[in-house]
Every structure is written in structure tokens, then in C-alpha cells.
Specification:
alpha+beta; 110 residues; 2 helices
Length: 110
């Protein structure tokens, strides 16, 4: 297990992570630090714990919005795939019907 030092709101914190995940954890910490600083500039002076909580809630809200949008996109994709499958079935049926008519015409000519 690896340990990285991350900086949030000017303070350094050691964080354990799986080997090879150090850069990912550092990137997440930078994102969280940016959100903490953004929230801090909006709310003024509050305790660091409250500031971290507020930033975490903002990020959780953004995450919930993204999950909702993802679910909507997945639903639209599912409908689109169903529509495509139905179109494929109709095309196959039309081709099959045309082939039947061609075969009947060919038998009539023979």
C-alpha cells in the first residue's frame, strides 16, 4: 500500500492508496482542493470541517446530477437501440417479402 501527501486548503494530509494509484489520488485531491477553495470564497470564514463538508456536499450534488444525466442517456440509448432493432426486423421482413415475390415471378416465367 502506498501513501501520498495531498494538499487541501493549504494543509497537507497523508493518504493511503493502492500501489499505482498515487497520481489518481493526487488528482482527486487537487479537484477537491479547488472545490474547497471555491466554496470558501463564497461562504467566507467557517471552520475547516464545515468547509470540507460543504465542498463534499457540492461535489456529491454534482455527482448525483451526472448520475441522473447518465441514466437519461442510457435510457435514450436503449430506446434508440430498440428502434434500430425494430427497423432491422422490418427491413428483413421487407426483403424477405420482396424475395418471395421475385421467386413467384421467376416460377411464373419458367
Amino acid at each position: 500500500m502506498a501513501t501520498v501527501s495531498v494538499s487541501v486548503n493549504g494543509h497537507h494530509y497523508p493518504v493511503g492508496c493502492e500501489d499505482g494509484q498515487e497520481r489518481h489520488v493526487e488528482a482527486l485531491a487537487r479537484e477537491f482542493d479547488a472545490k474547497v477553495r471555491e466554496v470558501g470564497s463564497q461562504v467566507g470564514k467557517v471552520t475547516e470541517l464545515r468547509l470540507f463538508l460543504m465542498a463534499a456536499l457540492v461535489l456529491a450534488d454534482e455527482s448525483a446530477d451526472l448520475r441522473t444525466r447518465l441514466a437519461e442517456c442510457q435510457e435514450k440509448l436503449g430506446r434508440s437501440q430498440s428502434d434500430d432493432a425494430l427497423s432491422d426486423i422490418r427491413a428483413i421482413q421487407a426483403i424477405d417479402a420482396a424475395a418471395g415475390q421475385i421467386e413467384a415471378l421467376a416460377e411464373g416465367l419458367a
